[in-house]
Fold each of these.
Amino acid sequence: MLEIQQLASAAVAAVVGGRNLNVALAAQWQKHPQLTSQQRAAITDISYGTLRFGAQLETVLAQLLAKPLRDESLRWLLLVALYQLQYTRAAPYAIVDNAVRCAAHVGEPQAAGLINAVLRNFLRRREALLAKAAHSDAGRYSYPQWWIDKLRAQYPRHFAAMLEAGNLHPPFTLRINRRRTTRDEYLALLAQHGIAATAVGAEAVTLARALPVERLPGFADGMVSVQDAAAQLAAPLLDAQDGMRALDACAAPGGKTTHLLEIASLELTALDSDATRLERVRQNLERLRLDARLLAADANDTAAWWDGKPFERILADVSCSASGVVRRHPDIKWLRRRGDIPQFVLQQQRLLGSLWRLLASGGKLLYTTCSVFQEENSLQVAEFLTRHADARVLPLCGVKTLDGTPEGQLLPDNEHDGFYYALLQKM
């Protein structure tokens, strides 16, 4: 456990320093190749959990400290240990003892004594400390204050449930490849393998617990793909028909690209600015035995890649704050800043304008984000409509939005992540 605490706290520190958690963890695996799969899983779980509940844990830690810490590495170690004490089943004495042993790697004098005192004090006063922490928004919801304020203003009836949903473990949902099987047939196959699952929507199943994909029956043969239930709405909404010329403008890692091709036989171009990520699209196409034209290019620089022939369908799954998928990526809470949102809005606005020029008359463009911030979603589309008289919004079949939320805005819940959809047609 000693090494696990050290490496988890190092990963958390890297995220707070601006690094993506997956990148931070990959660096740890490269630096420590001797780690077992079980150790890697433990480090990953603790890192995710500490970042998920970091704001709450920081509020608790502030109550336990007589003065600010001089060594930031001690702060991360204490947060990791507090997470373990509050949210894991590991023996408290082992967590405390191992954290004390980690003091040798901390530069602050008398770190061992401080660690021991802080953690044992938490165990003695846990309920009172957590109750006091809950008096503040950050301590109650474990998000940055600006994030809480934004959701409270935009979703006064739903913001608390949204914040709480973002702190849950995400559902593990599979998309059924309709070319290979049906939902009911695959549910029966899972039952044969002793894997508990439930039906979600028309073509999705959610497993009772997450599994490595190699343990999923038929995964290697292309029977299913891992994809959130909300993300699975994109391809059907676009209403693509056999023979159409289509563009997935931000394709990687390929979930929506492959779903489109499972639904219809298309002349599909899958575009992404990142050639490395585009390789994931190719791998998914191969596994599902589907075909598309892959292009590594900037979607805005149409002169560099577009052949001048309009597309009848365009999927614009644009870069965004990812505020709707924070439970899958809790590092977003630490990486995202209030000032990032206007920058995303400008990027989205520019991309929408570029792609609109490529759409055929009568064609449809589906604008989608994994955000719940309205500036990136309903307000973005409203602004687009003021600048494009030839655009109209079409109704969304099968997308149920809650009262008090904009049309097309899905809020995170037990079944799916937070997503936004707007279907635009060129007149």
Note: The chain has 17 helices and twelve strands.
Amino acid sequence: MDRQPLWTGNFVLLLFANLFLFLAFEMLIPTLPLFAEGMGATESQIGMVTGIFTFSAVLIRPFTGTLTSRFGRKGLLLMSTALCLGTTVAYGWTDGIGPIVAVRLLHGVGFGLATNLFAAMVSDLLPANRRGEGVGHFTMGETLAISLGPLFGVGLLGSFDFHGLFLAGGLILLVSLAMSGLTGRSRTPAEASTAAGEERPAGKPSILSAMIERRVLLPSALAVLLGLTVGAVVSFITVYAQARGIGHVEWFLFTNAMAGLLIRFVSGPLFDRKGPGSVLIPAAVCSLIGNVLVSAASDTASLIAAAVFCGMGVGAAFPALQAWCLQLVPAHRREAAIGTFFNAFDLGIGIGSMLAGGLAGWIGYSPMYLCSAGVFVVYLTVYMSCATRRRKGQSAAAKGKLPA
């Protein structure tokens, strides 16, 4: 099969527009709680400000396909990015916890739609034989933003005030909006299906099928398990390092991000050549080793070694699962598939953060990270048992025991 071009103009524009969307969001992760605290918010209210965003993003994603059919992918992307821009600037004009929560709720709606649409629009551009590689490169922007965004936000807050921080976020999103606007017209789900030679089922999909794409339940279940461990690592690594007297935890975060970026140059092409298992199994083993090393870390060097394995594991698994979801569905169901996948991953992160906190308070941080490593034993068991069952079914069909 011919090696079709990947780095087209539209692909690059969407990659950087998505990067800036995530950068503006990640800037607020460490700073918005401080903004709410300055207004007298209690710990529970700060938790509400943080959590309501995920709640609204999760709820809106299942309706992306319906809204896309009405406004088109590009039109809806521009509206959702503009909503993120408006709400980011609006934080600076809130004067109480209630208004912050309301703005945060709307911000989650815009972000939930935009992340779905970026993934769906990019999937239309990717050659089928390079989808794993393309998704890996595309999600590198997200990883970079997740790594640098919090540092950028704290740095801006140190140089300016909260109004300056929110205005800077708005300017970044303005760049994202402009880049999105420069992309060529994106196809509707119906047009994408026609271009792929697919036949769409007659009638409207049920409410349940609009919310959940059943064909991606396996990769989404693995995404939940992956999110459980990501929530534990991201939420508590700084506190854990301080408790063990380990300095320079920023090197863990940097190494984790760089390992996650670099592994995609290998994992994406490997996914395209060999299939999901060639990436998902080694990625799980790396993550398991990484969490075990975190639990045993006693100095900066050992924590950095753990970061290499953690970064490679998540950096390879996340885009592979996303590419697998896109591979399993027809073009007109990509929004539903990506929405199901992102919601599963976000759900895993949310639950993982809460469970990790409870476990850390009960048994301590080091055993908690061993439990996090144990999640990947479940991950491997689920994937390998499903893969074995699928191979047996294919073998039986080939022998004529089942209809082919």
Note: The chain has a mean pLDDT of 84.
